[in-house]
Amino acid sequence: MTVTAIGPYEFKSRDHVDNFHGNRVVYWHWEEHLMFCAAIALMLPPAMPFGEVLGNVLPGCYGMHPEFSQIVWPKVTWMLDSRPFKPDMEAGLAANHVGHKSLLRFWTPGLHGLGGAVV
Questions:
Q1: 3-class state of residue 66 by DSSP
Q2: What is the pLDDT along the chain (119 residues), one digit of tens a residue?
Q3: Strand bridging mode 83-85 / 40-44
Q4: By three-state DSSP, how is residue 98 classified?
Q5: Gene3D superfamilies under this entry (predicted)?
Q6: Residues 104, 40, 58, CA angle at the centre, nearest 5°?
Q7: Residue of 60, 45, 53, 34 whose CA lies nearest to 104
Q8: Could you tell me where the DSSP H helices lie in 3-119?
Q9: Neighbours of 50 (CB within 10 A)
Q10: Contacts of 10 (CB under 8 A, 6+ apart)
């Protein structure tokens, strides 16, 4: 969301990257799965391989959804900050151009929520 300041903005924001001890806040949103009504925010090291996030971090966040185990990651469609994106699973988040407060949205072909109800 774009914000227009009506005056000088002369202080560092509290969510500046320097306040996260070397990590970045990255937002993840599984589209068509509104059991999770909004993107989740994760603090992740920039060098963490993208595939490691999928294999070791996201299961702890989305694993309770019965469709999560059915995701075929190579077939997932991605958007990074509103642009189409094809992640390099072996490369780190920074190398994949995932920045501080980036939003990653993903669609899972054939999986549309509980009973196809987008839930």
A1: coil
A2: 787 888 887 888 888 899 999 999 999 999 999 887 899 999 999 999 999 999 999 999 999 999 999 999 999 999 999 999 999 999 999 999 999 999 999 999 999 988 777 77
A3: unpaired
A4: coil
A5: Phenol hydroxylase
A6: 75
A7: 53
A8: 50-52, 58-62
A9: 21
A10: none
Which is it for strands 40-44 and 24-30: parallel, antiparallel or unpaired?
A: antiparallel
Residues pairing with 42 in the sheet: 26
Q: To the nearest 10°, the Cα dihedral for 58, 61, 66, 70? A: 0
- Verdict on whether the full-model pTM lies above 0.90: no
Q: For residue 18, what are its two tokens?
A: 């320097």
Q: How many residues does the chain have?
A: 119
What are the tokens at 58?
């996201």
> 79 by DSSP, 3-state: which?
strand
